[in-house]
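Reminder to self: C-alpha cells first, then the designed residues, so the page reads top to bottom the way the pipeline ran.
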C-alpha cells in the first residue's frame, strides 16, 4: 500500500473522529436548546388564558338566533293530556234495508250507539303570567279532563275558557301565577324563507323530562287557503317544513326572535305516514283577534245572516243589464227586514266585491266571508254595480236568532 493511500485513509479517519467529537459536545445542546425554544413557544401560544378564550369563542359560536329563540320561547310551551268522550256507532248484525222489517222489529235492526273514553295529547303555549293558554280546539274537543304540564314538571287541571270550532282555536286557563309566557308576534310581517321553529309535544315526549321538542325549518309558503275541512275553516295558513307530528297540534311556530307567528295545526301526510315536511300553522294575528271574545263570551258568535240569494252571471244576462263582463253575481232575492235590505241592497244589483275579496262567482261569496273572519256585530263592506254605477254599501251583520 502506497504512502498516498495510507495518508488518505488517515485523514478520513481523523475527519470521522472530529465529527463525532463535535456532535457529542455541541449538537445535543443545540437540539435541547431548539426543543426548549419550541416548548416555550407552545406554552406561550396555548397558555391557560388563551385556551379559555378559545373555548369561550367556540361556545359563543354555538349560540345563534335559533338557540336564543328557543331559550326565550320554550319555558312557555306546555304539554296537554286530554281525556275525551267519543261516540261510536256499531251496525246491527241483522241490519237490513227492508223498511217493513225495520218498522216491525226496530230493536232488532237498529244500530247500536255507544260512548268511549279515550286519551289524547297535544301542545299549547302560555300567553299570560296568570295562566291563559292557547291550543287547537280539536285538541280539547269533547274533553272531560284537560291536564297541563309545564316545564318545571308541575301539573294542573285546565278549565276550557272558550272555544271557536270554526277557526280551530281554544283558550284554556290554569290556576298558577307568575308564569313565563310567550310573546305574540305579527304574522303579517312573516318573510318567505325565514327561519321557522316548531316547539311542542310530539308523541307525548314532553312527559319524559318536561321539556318540549324543537324542530327547525323555514317558512315555505304563505296564505294557503283550504276553505272548510271537517267543519273548520283554514284560511291564510302558514306553511313550513319544520317537522310537525302527532302531538304538535296547538303548539307555537316562532320566528328567529322567539316570537309566536302561528299555531301548528295539521300536516300533509301521504297515506298517514307522518311528517313529510309540509306542515301548516294558523297565523297568530287571526288567533289574537279571538282572545278577548273567548275570555268574555266563551265562544265566537258567527250565526249571522245577510239575507240575499244570488246567481252567477252569463253573457246573456249581462248583455240585457248593460253590464260589461261576466264577473260578479246578480242579486235575485232579498229577505224582508234582512241586513241586506237595511243596507239598501236592491234586486238586480251585481255584487262585485265583498270586503277585500273580488267576486266573480257565487262560491267566492262564501270564501270572502271565511277570509274576513266575520262574526255577529261586524260591518261588511259590499260593492255592487247598479244601473251603470258603482255603489258602496255597509252591511251590519245581525244574529239569525234575532230574525
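Designed residues (403 positions):
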Amino acid at each position: 500500500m502506497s504512502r498516498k493511500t495510507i495518508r488518505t485513509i488517515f485523514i478520513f479517519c481523523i475527519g470521522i473522529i472530529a465529527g463525532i467529537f463535535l456532535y457529542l459536545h455541541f449538537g445535543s445542546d443545540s437540539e435541547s436548546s431548539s426543543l426548549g425554544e419550541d416548548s416555550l413557544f407552545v406554552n406561550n401560544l396555548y397558555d391557560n388564558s388563551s385556551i379559555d378564550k378559545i373555548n369561550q369563542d367556540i361556545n359563543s359560536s354555538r349560540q345563534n338566533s335559533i338557540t336564543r329563540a328557543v331559550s326565550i320561547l320554550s319555558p312557555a310551551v306546555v304539554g296537554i293530556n286530554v281525556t275525551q268522550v267519543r261516540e261510536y256507532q256499531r251496525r246491527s248484525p241483522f241490519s237490513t234495508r227492508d223498511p217493513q222489517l225495520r218498522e216491525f222489529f226496530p230493536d232488532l235492526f237498529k244500530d247500536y250507539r255507544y260512548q268511549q273514553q279515550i286519551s289524547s295529547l297535544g301542545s299549547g303555549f302560555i300567553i299570560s303570567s296568570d295562566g291563559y293558554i292557547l291550543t287547537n280546539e280539536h285538541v280539547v274537543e269533547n274533553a272531560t279532563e284537560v291536564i297541563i304540564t309545564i316545564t318545571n314538571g308541575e301539573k294542573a287541571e285546565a278549565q276550557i275558557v272558550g272555544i271557536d270550532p270554526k277557526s280551530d282555536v281554544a283558550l284554556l286557563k290554569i290556576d298558577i301565577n307568575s308564569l313565563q309566557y310567550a310573546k305574540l308576534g305579527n304574522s303579517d310581517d312573516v318573510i318567505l324563507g325565514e327561519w321557522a321553529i316548531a316547539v311542542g309535544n310530539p308523541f307525548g315526549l314532553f312527559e319524559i323530562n318536561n321539556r318540549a321538542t324543537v324542530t327547525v325549518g323555514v317558512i315555505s309558503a304563505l296564505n294557503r287557503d283550504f276553505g272548510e275541512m271537517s267543519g273548520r275553516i283554514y284560511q291564510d295558513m302558514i306553511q313550513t317544513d319544520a317537522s310537525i307530528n302527532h302531538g304538535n297540534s296547538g303548539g307555537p311556530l316562532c320566528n328567529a326572535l322567539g316570537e309566536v307567528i302561528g299555531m301548528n295545526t295539521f300536516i300533509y301526510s301521504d297515506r298517514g305516514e307522518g311528517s313529510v315536511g309540509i306542515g301548516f300553522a294558523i297565523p297568530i294575528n287571526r288567533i289574537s283577534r279571538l282572545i278577548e271574545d273567548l275570555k268574555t263570551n266563551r265562544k265566537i258568535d258567527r250565526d249571522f245572516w245577510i239575507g240575499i240569494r244570488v246567481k252567477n252571471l252569463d253573457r246573456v244576462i249581462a248583455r240585457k243589464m248593460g253590464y260589461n263582463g261576466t264577473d260578479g253575481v246578480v242579486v235575485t232575492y232579498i229577505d224582508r227586514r234582512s241586513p241586506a235590505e237595511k243596507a239598501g241592497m236592491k234586486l238586480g244589483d251585481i255584487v262585485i266585491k265583498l270586503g277585500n275579496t273580488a267576486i266573480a262567482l257565487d262560491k267566492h261569496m262564501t270564501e270572502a266571508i271565511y277570509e274576513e273572519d266575520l262574526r255577529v256585530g261586524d260591518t261588511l263592506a259590499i260593492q255592487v254595480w247598479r244601473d251603470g254605477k258603482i255603489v258602496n254599501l255597509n252591511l251590519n251583520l245581525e244574529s239569525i236568532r234575532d230574525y
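Residues 3-45 form the longest helix (43 residues).
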